[in-house]
């Protein structure tokens, strides 16, 4: 999974404070989430190793920024990623995202399958996001709404399994969610 957006102001500005305050909790929640495999870090930032040089999609052009909020991660399956994305700590961040991020005309995220043992690079995520924007969902680049299985066949996400995973994550992440609820947007 790769996602990319643009903040409403510089990362250190008060307008983006709510994002900054939640960032560590989101990464910690992902690490605790069922089905999480790993994520790329950022060059020069303490944490996981960066999976190649961090690059950004063409949508950054003329934005006034030279970087933007983005992440690159690996998950065992679509249901695990969906359970994390739309529940708990990350869902709380999404609820407030309109305050920190610009409205965008490109897809917020892109999904694709990789072979076991493969670690994607930032450039792979950028290429897939641009492909999704330009050509729509396909086995090469897709979304939760138009998903594909590893062999390229259309697939419907198992919402019952998503609920089960979200409940399990909630138990494992209760401390993080309590912390996040104490933060200002």
Structural commentary:
This is DUF3291 domain-containing protein. Residues 2-146 form the DUF3291 domain. Pfam families: DUF3291. This protein is of the alpha+beta class and 185 residues long. It has 6 helices and 6 strands. Strands 2-3-1-4 form a 4-stranded antiparallel beta sheet. Strands 5-6 form a two-stranded antiparallel sheet. A hairpin with a 5-residue loop joins strand 5 and strand 6 (154-155). It starts with a strand and ends with a helix. The model has no long low-confidence stretch (mean pLDDT 95).
Chart the SSEs and their pairings.
Layout: E1 2-4, H1 17-32, E2 36-39, E3 70-75, H2 78-85, H3 88-100, E4 109-110, H4 122-135, E5 147-148, E6 154-155, H5 159-172, H6 174-181
Antiparallel strand pairs: 1-3, 1-4, 2-3, 5-6
InterPro entries: DUF3291
Organism: Mycoplana rhizolycopersici
Protein name: DUF3291 domain-containing protein
**Oligomeric status of the shown chains?**
single chain
Sum up the overall morphology in one term.
Answer: globular
Helicity level: 25-40%
SS element count, helices: 6
SSE arrangement, N to C: EHEEHHEHEEHH
Strand-residue fraction?
Answer: 5-15%
The total beta strand count reads 6
Largest sheet: 4 strands, antiparallel
């Amino acid at each position: 999974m790769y996602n990319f957006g643009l903040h409403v102001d510089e990362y250190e500005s008060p307008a983006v404070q709510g994002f900054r305050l939640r960032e560590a909790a989101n990464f910690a929640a992902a690490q605790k989430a069922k089905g999480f495999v790993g994520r790329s870090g950022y060059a020069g930032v303490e944490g996981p190793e960066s999976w190649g040089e961090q690059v950004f999609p063409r949508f950054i052009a003329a934005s006034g920024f030279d970087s933007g909020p983005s992440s690159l991660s690996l998950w065992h399956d679509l249901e695990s990623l969906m359970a994390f994305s739309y529940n708990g700590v990350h869902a709380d961040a999404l609820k407030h995202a309109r305050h920190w991020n610009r409205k965008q005309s490109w897809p917020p995220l892109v999904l694709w399958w990789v072979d076991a043992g493969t670690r994607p690079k930032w450039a792979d995520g950028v290429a897939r996001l641009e492909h999704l924007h330009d050509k729509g969902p396909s086995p090469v680049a897709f979304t939760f709404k138009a998903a594909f299985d590893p062999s390229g066949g259309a697939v419907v996400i198992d919402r019952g399994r998503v609920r089960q995973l979200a409940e399990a994550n909630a138990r494992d992440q209760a401390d993080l969610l309590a912390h996040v609820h104490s933060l200002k947007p």
